[in-house]
């Protein structure tokens, strides 16, 4: 029973981040300055999500070659830059991660 | 319609032709939105399966895990909630964390809202409820294209619906597989989210201001990582946005971001 209260609370908390701003701002015009700043939202949010996962290990910078997520990310960045193909980036990025892991497995 | 849908996917995959950007009917826009989201569906498969497996192996009932995917529908928040719950965190703290982790949706809403201002109000409820990182990036790209298609909200809806149906499906696969998989995280499949986001991010980096936003947001995320409740994510995003705006003054370009 308790987990359903938790899920209900999480659902409301999430809706609170998704619906009110959409509602309010579709009625009111944004200033051009803000609109220009919002162009950077996807770039900034995606980067902020990715960077700690790839570059940190136990809260410390991890630039070693056995950091498989780092190697796979570099390969994924290169593939995405050259091919612009999302599917290829995902599939080859995952393949490199699993391969690199197997290579450095203890 | 289902046949067209599948054929559309296959043609897109095999030929990799540019997708016509002006779907001229609601139905065509709906299908185009779903089709353009297809690679992101693939990226969500391992992530969703792991979520389902992790949830049931760390104390959630199958219906609790499924309800979370159905009613919360926010992958990273769901992962964090399962982790916190396994560490016996009070529900109130998990809910607050969910809110903070999902605050980025406010930025997404603010970006999309000006494109949706002529819609009947009722549209905003489903469009908002189903909003995710993936559909946002796909739709933001489509919305900023110059054409004047009147059906762009159908495109967003198509993308969102595909993500939602896909997420329910893979969650259930994970729930059912959960008993069989030992330590699902050790497989490294949760990394699928990272490569998916890299594939979404890289094509957006056009020009120096965009690159500045990426580097500053990423750097700030590393520095603020220790902050509680994932607050660092939000701060880092704001730093990145500010960096992009400032860099635009230094290097004015015609094509500075997506």
Helix content range of chain B: 55-70%
Could you name the ranges of chain B where pLDDT drops below 50 across 5 or more consecutive residues?
14-18
Provide the domain count of chain B. 2
Strand content of chain B: under 5%
Mean pLDDT of chain A: 90
- Spans of chain A of at least 5 consecutive residues whose pLDDT stays below 50 are none
How many strand elements of chain B? 0
Counted by DSSP, the helix tally of chain A is 6
Principal-axis shape of chain A: extended
The total beta strand count of chain A reads: 2
Tell me about the largest β-sheet of chain B. Answer: none
Q: How would you sum up the major sheet of chain A?
A: 2 strands, antiparallel
**Computed structural class of chain B:** mainly alpha
> Average pLDDT value of chain B?
85
Total domain units of chain A: 2
Distance between the termini of chain B: 32 Å
Estimated radius of gyration of chain A: 20 Å
- Sheet with most strands: strand arrangement of chain A: 1-2
What sequence of helices (H) and strands (E) makes up the elements of chain B? HHHHHHHHHHHHH
Q: How does this structure look, described?
A:
The complex is a heterodimer of chains A (106) and B (258). Chain A has 106 residues and is mainly α. Chain A folds into two domains: 1-39, no CATH class; 40-106, no CATH class. Helices cover 75% and strands 4% of the residues of chain A. Chain A has a two-stranded antiparallel ribbon with strand order 1-2. In chain A, a hairpin with a 2-residue loop joins strand 1 and strand 2. In chain A, helix 5 (68-83) runs antiparallel to helix 6 (86-103). The radius of gyration of chain A is 20 Å and the shape is extended. Chain B is mostly helical and 258 residues long. Chain B has two domains: 2-200, no CATH class; 205-258, no CATH class. Chain B contains 13 helices and no strands. Chain B has helices at 2-15, 26-36, 38-57, 62-72, 75-86, 91-101, 104-112, 124-129, 133-143, 152-178, 192-201, 208-223, 231-250. In chain B, helix 4 packs antiparallel against helix 10 and helix 9 runs antiparallel to helix 10 (152-178). Chain B is globular, with a radius of gyration of 19 Å. At the A-B interface, helix 1, helix 2, helix 3, helix 4 and helix 5 of A face helix 3, helix 4, helix 5, helix 6 and helix 7 of B.
């Amino acid at each position: 029973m308790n987990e359903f209260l938790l899920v209900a609370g999480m659902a409301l908390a999430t809706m609170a981040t998704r619906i009110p701003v959409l509602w309010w701002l579709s009625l009111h015009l944004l200033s051009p300055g803000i609109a220009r700043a919002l162009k950077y939202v996807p770039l900034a949010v995606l980067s902020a999500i990715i960077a700690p996962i790839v570059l940190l290990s136990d809260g410390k910078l991890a630039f070693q070659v056995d950091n498989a997520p780092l190697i796979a990310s570099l390969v994924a960045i290169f593939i995405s830059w050259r091919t612009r193909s999302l599917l290829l980036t995902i599939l080859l990025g995952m393949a490199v991660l699993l391969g690199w892991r197997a290579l450095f497995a203890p | 319609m289902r046949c067209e849908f599948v054929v559309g996917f296959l043609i897109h995959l095999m030929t990799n032709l540019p997708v016509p950007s002006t779907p001229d009917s609601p139905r065509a826009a709906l299908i185009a939105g779903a089709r353009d989201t297809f690679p992101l569906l693939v990226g969500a498969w391992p992530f969703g399966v792991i979520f389902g497996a992790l949830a049931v192996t760390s104390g959630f009932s199958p219906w609790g895990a499924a309800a979370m995917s159905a009613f919360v529908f926010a992958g990273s928040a769901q992962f964090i909630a399962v982790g916190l719950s396994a560490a016996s965190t009070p529900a109130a703290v998990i809910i607050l964390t969910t809110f903070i982790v999902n605050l980025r949706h406010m930025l997404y809403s603010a970006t999309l809202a000006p494109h949706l201002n002529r819609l009947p109000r009722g549209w905003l409820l489903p469009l908002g409820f189903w909003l995710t990182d993936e559909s946002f990036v796909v739709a933001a790209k489509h919305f900023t294209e110059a054409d004047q298609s009147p059906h762009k909200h159908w495109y967003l809806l198509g993308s969102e619906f595909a993500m939602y149906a896909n997420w329910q499906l893979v969650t259930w696969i994970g729930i059912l597989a959960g008993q069989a998989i030992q330590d699902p995280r050790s497989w490294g499949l949760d990394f699928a989210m990272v490569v998916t986001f890299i594939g979404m991010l890289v094509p957006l980096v056009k020009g120096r201001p965009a690159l500045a936003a990426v580097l500053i947001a990423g750097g700030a995320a590393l520095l603020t990582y220790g902050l509680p409740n994932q607050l660092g994510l939000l701060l880092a995003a704001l730093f990145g946005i500010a960096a992009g705006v400032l860099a635009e003054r230094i290097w004015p370009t015609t094509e500075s971001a997506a």
